[in-house]
Amino acid sequence: MALVNDVKKEINAKIVYIGPKGAGKSAAIRSIYSQLKPESRSDLKSMAINGHQMLFFDFSYPLPLMKEGYSVRFHLYTIHAEGDTALPWKMLLKGVDGVVVLADSSKGMTYANLESCTLLADALSHYGVSCSDIPISLQCNKTDIKGALSPEEIQRELFPEAGTVPVPVVATTGEGLLDGLHGLVTDVLRNLGHSGEIRLSESTPPSRSKKIPEDTEDSFLHCSVDTPGFEVEMAGEPLVLGGTTVEIPLRLKGGACGKSAEFKVTVSIGI
């Protein structure tokens, strides 16, 4: 579940990358980190926890999907686990808002991929959550190697009944990683909107079942909500709340991204 910081006016959402040992989870996190705009991301950190190595960082989502001025930050996590992997993953998946299942496309890795999915389901069930309750992105790494299984084959093995569109990725080069992350971020935002934790604007990007236009992906990487050139306009009719108090709906438009965000201003007039 997303955490709300009322002091910073931020909604913090958690995404975990899970997959078998050697699937490329750490490489994927590092590659994503290197491609995001430096001013939008935190430092990349590594922390030892009971013999396991956790890798994580967070970044601000540039599209102004806000709840009365609240922005959204996404926190990406993975673990390089040694030995019995159930406990560290169970701890990491607490309160998760979205999951990337990073499958290994190499031949002979089907059972290891299935083990990761079973581990994911067991860890979520510990918190009363099922895989159908949160957005999951199936990303198939090492699709560039000889004899790799196709994403469709991997999906049939891991999520045969799900409507998830598998994303082919190459963690070492970064290919496909941002497209997969962008799709999952979109689904997480929609999920939070349905739960009432945020209100989505009309400029919400398409779901990941559709191809993401290049200009949309570019704004995901390089837009900044601090750019100048914004304008404010009415977003509806003013509402009299009672007495001399009026609620005025406004829309903030412009900036380098050309996006919009709606908010409300309450005015009390003394007569």
Fill in the keyword field for this structure.
271 residues; alpha/beta; Rossmann fold; 8-stranded mixed β-sheet; 12 strands
Give an account of the 3D structure.
- By secondary structure, the protein is an alpha/beta fold.
- It has helices at 25-35, 86-92, 110-125, 151-158, 177-194, 214-222, and strands spanning 3-5, 10-18, 45-49, 52-60, 71-80, 98-104, 136-141, 167-168, 230-234, 239-242, 245-254, 259-268.
- The chain has two domains: 3-222, Rossmann fold (3-Layer(aba) Sandwich), CATH 3.40.50.300; 230-268, no CATH class.
- The strands form two sheets. Strands 1, 2, 3, 4, 5, 6, 7 and 8 form an eight-stranded mixed β-sheet that branches. Strands 9, 10, 11 and 12 form a four-stranded antiparallel β-sheet that branches.
- A hairpin with a 2-residue loop joins strand 3 and strand 4 (52-60).
- It starts with a strand and ends with a strand.
